[in-house]
Design brief:
By secondary structure, the protein is an alpha+beta fold. 30% of the residues lie in helices and 26% in strands.
Amino acid sequence: MDKFAIRGGNRLHGTISVSGSKNSSLPILAATLLTRERCVLHRVPDLTDVRYMLDILRYLGADVEFSQGSVVVEARKVVGETPYDLVRRMRASVCVLGPLLARCGRAKVSLPGGCVIGDRPIDLHLRGLEALGSRIALSKGYVIAEASGLVGARMSLQGPHGSTVLGTDNVMMAACLARGTTIVENAASEPEVADLARFLCSMGAKVRRAGGSRLEIEGVDELHGAEHTVISDRIEAGTFAVAAAITRSELVLEEAPIEHMRSTLSALQDAGVFVEAAEGRLRVRATDPLHPLQLRTGTYPGFPTDMQAQFCALAATIPGRSRIEDDIFPNRFMHISELKRMGAHADLLANVAVIDGVDRLSGAPVMASDLRASAALVLAGLQAENTTTISRVYHIDRGYERIDAKLRAVGADIERLPK
């Protein structure tokens, strides 16, 4: 497995172009299964998770081409079953369940894998599909869903930690081909859900948001092919913004989805980071002193759980006591033990990280446990004295397109070491 070697202490300066959104691309790719016609997607990032999804589409029978950020999918004939060996590699693979059920009347999908960041059940997905008239069974690690014809229904997708993004995606895709109208209360409001809805509408679906958390989907007989450009990745942009802050540097981010980053940018500004945003161009500049952080994750438009680890790394370099609470995934703090190996002063109290910042972290060998924890360790390595070696960087390749090359281009001393 590849490693990163980062020699910290360099100031960063320059411009980084933000890639297309991973969390938009995956469900949109799944949605191409809803039509027999050709679909063309642009600004699709070249990530291992995207490659996994393309493998799943090919296994299901679709013709797939991927070149220079554009994907062409033509799913003239599809089968309704995905094997464990494909689906286990990422959680987002579960979003083929809704399209397969709607298209084939039957779907057999292995329970999904992905990052190990605590229990992330799919019960809300299944409850939503059952409300549309599907019969659901769990057998030998597979979800088996069957329906002679889906029928629109009224439902709520509210869970104990808020609404479900992939569950909303699954239900929305299935409801597009259901008979009648589906009303989803407490639907996820994330920009990636809205991006999927735009793609579905370009295919001929009738989806509209009525108020902040209510979706109305009027079923149609069939969908047609379409062309779509994926939105920029707000988490990648946020991660590079924190890279500027943690190294007390200045970076310009091109094609940043500023309107989707309000809570992240507000958190940076509260810490004393200078942020200037205009027309997709984001300038971030930080100098000492910065102020401790008081953050709590929430569903969109709240502070994103996918930025929690990166801000923990930043807090570790800010004198004073920071408090970062994660109510979405309470167990998503495995990066704390690795940051402590680098000299961070941090304690974990249930779902709250209490961090007393230090002037400088120390390079150390550390191990990535999940996608966003990997990003946090890269950020810490950029600030730390000496060399930080990060193992298992395949996690970061799941969600960041060429992060090492992008950071090198703005002055970071980061090297990928082959296995």
